[in-house]
Amino acid sequence: MFAAYAARIDRDQPLNGLELGERPAPEARPGWTTVNVKAASLNHHDLWSLRGVGLGEEALPMILGCDAAGTDADGNEVVLHSVIGQSGHGVGPDEPRSILTERYQGTFAEQVTVPAWNVLPKPKELSFAEAACLPTAWLTAYRMLFTNAGVRPGDGVLVQGAGGGVATAAIVLGAAAGLRVFATSRSADKRKRAVELGAEAALPTGERLPQRVDAVIETVGAATWSHSVKSLKPGGTLVISGATSGFNPERTELNRIFFLELKVVGSTMGSKDELASLLNFCAAKGVRPVIDSTLPLDRAREGFAKLAEGEMFGKVVLTV
Predict the structure, then answer these.
(1) Is the backbone peptide bond immediately before 61 cis, with ω within 30 degrees of 0?
(2) Helix and strand element counts for the chain (H, E)
(3) DSSP 164
């Protein structure tokens, strides 16, 4: 079957390790099911995999891709939850949780095999492309906002780095849930689009907000860390799920964290139940993922290039 896969690890030029071509079809295994992929979306996790983060040379070649929507063997339309081992279903009881492609072949292919427990019904209101955007970036944003930040309608939230998959999802979900959403970006065009998606205001990166907020959604890391801490109300919560600009901020702002009793919460992906709630929320409220572009699988390299350059707004989707 045709697939986009990591053939080599290149920490400096990750796209050098990306190959497109034929790979073996997935083999049946007890407790697992095969899904015919209709659409799959790109995540920064795929770029990190090509750099060797979470993926070792011994696991190559590895078909990339965490997210997918498609059909099962009976023709049912489904969405995949890409955290393997969280429940013990389909794997040994002592296997630690992992994201698809850290241990098992991914979704950038005509077919993918996952534990049957990891398959959820796709709401009829969502297209395959829209549903394929939800299991990683949108699920991460959902958990950050509603589980780990614990915000309620009327609360203020700052979303750093408008344009990325998680950030875009947080803006749309936050606005739909009645939050006062503020966003930042270096790009004037991305700031404009953030307001169009429901942000109350979008400001240049690092600029002082009109008011302090109850929570910050942080995926940028070092470049925005200090601004994130300074933007919180006393007792506020900073939720972090990534650090695309680096892991070591110049200033940690520890004095503000302890004096203002701020909370710093790490967040990774989300549970199957949270994904089910997200799917229901999108279907019931008309919320739809923001799709930057849709490309056929054989043009996956173009999608990876957009992701690497940070030129997208929303998700890049590959169709099969």
Answers:
(1) yes
(2) 9, 18
(3) B
Find, among 310, 298, 292, 308, the residue nearest to 41 by Cα: 292
Answer for the pair 225, 197: CB distance below 8 angstroms, yes or no: no
Q: Is residue 316 within 8 Å of 303, Cβ to Cβ?
A: yes
Collapsing DSSP to helix, strand or coil, 201 comes out as strand
**Are 123 and 132 contacting, i.e. CB atoms less than 8 angstroms apart?**
no
pTM of the model: 0.92
For residues 132 and 97, what is the distance between their CA atoms, to the nearest angstrom? 21
For 147-199, the pLDDT digits (tens) are 999 999 999 999 999 988 899 999 999 999 999 999 999 999 999 999 999 99
Contact at 8 Å (CB) between 65 and 6?
Answer: no
Residue 217: strand pairing partners:
159, 239
Rounded to an integer, what distance in angstroms lies between the CA atom of residue 83 and that of residue 98? 6
For residue 310, which of 162, 146, 110 has the smallest C-alpha distance?
162
Instruction: Please tell me the distance from the alpha carbon of residue 130 to that of residue 150, in angstroms, as a whole number.
Output: 26
Nearest to 66 by CA among 287, 268, 223: 268
* Residue 299 in tokens: 């043009």
Chain centre distance of CA 109: 19
pLDDT of residue 7: 97
Distance of alpha carbon 276 from alpha carbon 154, whole angstroms? 24
Instruction: Answer for the pair 180, 155: CB distance below 8 angstroms, yes or no.
Output: yes
CA–CA distance, 211 with 169 (Å, rounded to integer): 22
Q: Return the amino acid letter for 311.
A: E
Can you give the pLDDT at residue 219?
A: 93
Torsion of CA 229, 232, 236, 240, to 10 degrees: -40
